[in-house]
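Example with several molecule types.
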Amino acid sequence: MAIDDGRSFEHPLYHYWENSPGGGIGLTSLDRLLMHSARHSLWFFPMATSCCAIEFMTAAASRVDLDQAGTIIRPTPRHCDVMVVAGTITVKMAPRVKKLWDQMPEPKWAIAMGSCAICGDFYRDIYSVVPGVDVIIPVDVYIPGCPPNADQVMVGLQRLQDKIKLQLEGKFVERELRPGTMIYPKIGTHGDARQSAEVAQAQLDGARGLGVGGKEHRVPRPAAVQAPPEADATSDSGEQS
Amino acid sequence: MNLRQRDRINPHLDLDTVDAAADLMALNMGPQHPSTHGVLRIKLFLDGEVIIKAVPYPGYLHRGVEKLCERLTCVQLTPIFDKHDYVAPMTNEQALNIALERMLGVEVPRRARYMRTILAELQRLASHLLWLGTFTLDIGGTIGGGASLMMYTFREREPILDVFEMLTGARFHYNTHQVGGNRHDIPDGWAAAVKTCMDQLAARMPEYEEQCVTNSVFLMRTKGIGVIETPLALELGLTGPNLRASGVDLDLRRDAPFHAYDEIKVNVAVSNGCDTHARFEVRIAEMYESIRIVRELIDNVPEGPICSLKPVRTVNQIKLPEGKQMYTAIETPRGELGTWLIGGGAEKGACPYRLKIRPPSLHAMAALPYALVGHTVSDVVAVLGSLDPIMGEVDR
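Resulting structure tokens for the full complex:
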């Protein structure tokens, strides 16, 4: 959705209805009805360019059958609520995608399907490819995969429905992170299966503010300073004994 | 003007010479159009509803695959090749790996060659099923009854993808071929699954064919539409079913055998109709032939290793000889897919210096300006659907 704000759903007629005597009672019931129907009658606009388009067609066909969720696939932007960007978006195609997005009436949502639409995949650095469709249009749901299976499209649709429900209730919806842009730490986190037990324990101790081996945390000093000269150490011990 | 008087219309018409009083209308079809099989834009110049001139503008899916191939090593190329013809990824992988094998002189074990033949024919079936569904959808429309056949063909395509998933773990973009053979061996119960799938398809195919050929509207919209004569088809470099529908008996499976095709007999379907209906007939006949080949081979897969080289461990494992170049072509569901490979690129020869792809769909697109003139706007989707171009392959 362009503006994450439940108020954009308000129809101008609401104002007159609300101000008429006793109108608020009917308006509450109507609001609930509209919320329900907006969620369960999403019309899809397939911005289908490449491989993911075939898998999107499979999702609309017999086995998965997107129609059971009340969707209809319409190839014209003016009828549709959701734009599904399925496939690579090139520099030549990008202005068309933006224009078609602008032609869709509010409220509208966008789904980025497949790794090309999310971040450009391995065509990312190629001169003619847009690295992710969210540089052009705001994306609500990301469905990762290359291409995602047809049932994953169904899961993505359900995620979008949940999001729309929260939006219509006027609640704050946190923006979904682009899967390709999540920053992973260079070193493994605690509990990572790939790293050794010593490193995991050291990280855990570091997080508690403790030093290595569960002792008090110290700033490590340079080796030359840290190691005392052997002669002094022996002489000290000799004097004490 | 008579709609079918094609002789009086010149496909090379220069629009500057047209009288302004003719008042031609320019109509853009695409790039976002449900029936252009992706993102193709055709500029149509219309007199009333009759097409006077048609100019295709490809390039909306140009992903720079050939440039990318110069930066990746031979081992890394197979997944890239999956994606440029996304309806038939299996045969694309084979085209690349056969090119690399012939350049390096690597022998493929007999079991791997048989497996590749079966996979290629299954992929041809899946591709043609998808074509049949979308072609009838384009002609009939969602409301007009075309969608029903599309639902049926997608239902038939699912078991074939399940069979691929059983073998490779992926429904799409398999990455199952490597230089010297295959990556995944046949699992238990695979042959039985393939046979069940083929039995189902063989039982239902006549029904789908009958749905089309007994429909008078379908016949009216396909017969005599989009004629590409034999000399024109040869001149434009059409291959595959499009060429065979123009009356040329050429099939690389029989004429330049590549997998195990030299050990089996391939009956090539040819039609002299030259029109949209002939291309439909040829593809339907090819599907029956593919079912026959798969059924013949699935019981006779020989035992032995599936790869003659060591399994892939590093990306720089295979080096191409410097300066050597070779053109290799195989028959994919859409026609001759050729790769022109020059060795000795980056990474001390592990990358190709140049990899030129000769896609069959690009040459099919070249026939559009000739096939469309003289017909109405509604015939564009029928002709385009019958040529079966894949835009990922056209633009690369």
